[in-house]
Amino acid sequence: MILAMDTSTYVLGVAVGDDQTVRAEWTTHEKTNHSLRLMPGIDLVLKSVGLKPKQLSKIAVTTGPGSYTGVRIGVSTAKAMASSLNVPLVEVSTLETLASNGKYREGLVCSFIDARRGQVYAGVYEVKDEALTVYKEERLLLLEDLLQELKNEERSVLFLSLDVDLHRETLTHELGEHAIFGANGDNRTKPSEVLRIASQKEAATNVDAVVPRYLQLAEAEKNIKKESSS
């Protein structure tokens, strides 16, 4: 059995199952401290299907990008459990997990997380036969730069994000009819998708080396930091 967890946004989720079946899934949208809810959530999910931690064969966790504090909590918890249970740990991208909600629609999918100051964490994927491949690597960049790149594609793009309503007007203005939006339920990461992706990925070779993925600062942010320090 695989235990999958996601704490990378304000939505917290836990799932347990294998490569064939999701045995249990729990999600909460409350914007409170993940450190207070993650372990009780794990306990709830395991007890709901009569599993004990020692029966787990693998741990999976989203390693970002996302909330600095949230990602750290998830990664730290997953590493501690994997080490204490002596089971493999699988790292899963938050943006890939989010984009996988659009795997039933052929074409481009852009998953993103607002990073403030005009920036977003974003990845662009191409879907074919319900399989995702990376079309543009995950990056931290200015939203306007991302949209310019997507405009140049001259293709429809499905946008998925918890923050989509913050930028819906801009996305529509820049891409027009090429901007496609998913259902509300598709705009959050789902622990069942973390589980599914993890069942198809190799585990980390060194649990201690697993760290949050915050991505590199965009050039604009670097310039702002330089100006503030000069």
UniProtKB/TrEMBL annotation:
InterPro entries: ATPase_NBD, Gcp-like_dom, T6A_TsaB
Protein name (Swiss-Prot/TrEMBL): tRNA threonylcarbamoyladenosine biosynthesis protein TsaB
Domain (Gcp-like): residue spans on this chain: 32-222
PANTHER family (UniProt xref): TRNA N6-ADENOSINE THREONYLCARBAMOYLTRANSFERASE, TRNA THREONYLCARBAMOYLADENOSINE BIOSYNTHESIS PROTEIN TSAB
Keywords, in A-Z order: Coiled coil
Family annotation (Gene3D superfamilies): 3.30.420.40
Superkingdom of this protein's organism: Bacteria
Keyword set includes Transferase: no
Coiled coil ranges: 136-163
